[in-house]
Design goal:
The strands form two sheets. A five-stranded mixed sheet has the order 7-4-5-8-9, sandwiched between helices. It has a four-stranded antiparallel sheet with strand order 1-2-3-6. It has two domains: 37 residues, no CATH class; 127 residues, GTP Cyclohydrolase I, domain 2. The protein has 221 residues and is an alpha+beta fold. Helix 1 packs across helix 2. The protein has seven helices and nine strands. The longest helix is centred in the C-terminal third of the chain and has 16 residues. Bound molecules: zinc ion. Zinc ion binds next to loops.
């Protein structure tokens, strides 16, 4: 796991007519290990053979390529501009984006887990375009993951890059490796949370976050 790299000055003033003063822009890229698609296709064909299937059969002929492409897409994070704005109004209450879709790949079984994230921050000197909270979730979700680490990474990244007074992240997700195999508990959801700054230290703010996120006092429904 490589840390996201920031390219370009941050924050850099945008020039041009109508650009708000103090507009901060950060190009976010998340370097990944290089992928070898032909090798992935060969490996999928080998896996099919090992499972007693014939990858040369008419129905499976394109499957290795499709599987390799699908994993490549699922493991490629977005690149985006993270635009921040000065908190001129001195807004000092929680900003929360609820029900951000999450889809990721469990690193233990290479099966998807999917659900929603609720992401909140308590602004400091800058605020963030709301759609960008979803992009930050996607940045870390498109990787081989465990839900606990994904939750921590989203919270840590926001704390480090936005320097808010606090951050709260709750993720609720269903893991296909639990629903389809193993304990076979369809519909059961795993809930994780990560807190930083004031949300971690102050019980009242923490409770407000969990109430707004709809997850109850302790992060549980
Ligand atoms: Zn799993």
């Amino acid at each position: 796991m490589t840390a996201p790299e920031q390219v370009g000055p941050a924050p850099a003033p945008r020039t041009g007519p109508g650009a708000p003063a103090g507009h901060g822009r950060l190009r976010v890229v998340h370097p990944r290990p290089a992928m070898d698609l032909p090798a992935a296709e060969r490996a999928v064909a080998d896996l099919l053979r090992a499972l007693g299937r014939d990858p040369a059969s008419v129905h499976l002929a394109d499957t290795p390529r499709r599987v390799a492409d699908a994993y490549a897409e699922l493991l490629t994070g977005p690149q985006f501009d993270l635009t921040t704005f000065p908190n001129d109004e001195g807004y000092d209450e929680l900003v929360l984006a609820r029900d951000i879709p999450v889809q990721s790949l469990c690193e233990h079984h290479l099966l998807p887990f999917r659900g929603v994230a609720h992401v909140a921050y308590l602004p400091g000197s800058r605020i963030l375009g709301l759609s960008k909270l979803a992009r930050v979730v996607e940045l870390f979700a498109r990787d081989l993951q465990v839900q606990e680490r994904l939750t921590q990474q989203v919270a840590g990244w926001l704390q480090d890059n936005l320097a808010p007074r606090g951050v709260g992240v709750v993720i609720e997700a269903e893991h296909l490796c639990m629903s389809l195999r193993g304990v076979r508990a369809p519909g059961s959801r795993t809930l994780t949370s990560a807190l930083r700054g004031v949300l971690r230290e102050d019980a009242r703010t923490r409770q407000e976050f969990f109430a707004l996120a709809g997850t109850g006092r302790d992060g549980l429904r």
